[in-house]
Amino acid sequence: MQHNRTKIKTILLLLISWTISPSYCQEEIIELEPTPLDYIRGKDSLIDVVLANPQTYRFQWMLTEIEKVDSNYVLGQTYDFTQPSWYFYPASTVKLPIALLTLEKLKKTGFSTHAQLRFNREQECGNMSYIDASHDPSLTIGDMLKKLIIVSNNTYYNSFFHYLTPKLLNGELTKRGFGQTKIYKDFTGCEMPLNFFSNSLNVSEQVAGNTFVQRSSVLELKDFANNYTYDRNKLIGSKHEYRGKIVDGPFDFNYNLEYPIRDIHVTSLRLFFPDYFPKEVQWDIRERDRNLLLESMKSYPKDLGEKEFLNVKDYPDNLYKYIALGTPDSLYNSVITYSKIGISYGFVTETAYVIDQRTDKRYVLTANIYVNSNNTVNDGKYEYEEVARPFLARFGQLLLEY
At 326, phi and psi to the nearest 5? Predict the structure, then answer.
């Protein structure tokens, strides 16, 4: 199967059309002029191997070039090399829309990121550390958001997931045109139906003197099931781990997290370039909250200032930054990225706004690669460091030279 080789013009019309409608609409202009992929081929042996083996690595990506017009940065060409029929597990990339919708809800209810979130304990299952963490009187929602993005904290993902509730979360995504995105799973390890119950909570802010009380809620199972269609393409691998043993047969990703490359890419573009989108699909967040999120996406673990994250051996700057920065190279010391990555089950997905401060070359890239040479899912044996990191690093670097 070959990737779509589509060069997309009229970027504004494209972005409006495909994000308002749950179906993907685009004005396709197939041209013979070279694409970034033509430039990249033949310049790195690992990249050539991945590109030559699409069924093995399932590599797919979208690129939007950023151009400078006068003193403004504008959206340029978008290139689409995705395969919508290829399922991938998005992992922590779902934390980006979770963060955005959390900031929206704070604005709507009149709270700042200095507010505190405290859960009650009406139901327990799996890892309930997010409830215990919420009882820390010094912990603010802003602190939680920074760790959610910078070090991909799962505890705070669970907090925001249940603060939003799966019903509100998925309803808002659908309303904005992300009908193919489905985020009904927390990271507590509970059986799926138990993810649908959200404990009651209080949001309080001493300075403003405000308190918001949210009752416990549950999503009906039918409301979850009606949003999915069983798909054999979501059966991945030849073997998988089950209850501590390796068993024959693929791992079933049906009724799991779904966040297509195109939706991830548009999520990022709406954040980085909101003025290119109609008001009704923009992220409705305050500018100071947008800046907090952007700064978090740019930051490294050490920027949190906590002793644990100052250990560069355990938390190197590029720990959660593969695109362009994944492997050290002094030629790219001037590069910064605003990014969010997801790594799990052999899938690596990253969306990044990449800026070379020396040349002012810029682009937004969203990419996914699968690295699982033994074709066994959930055994913890994947080629993240051997293949995914150097591949995405070099791929991103070559795009800066294109």
Answer: -65, -30
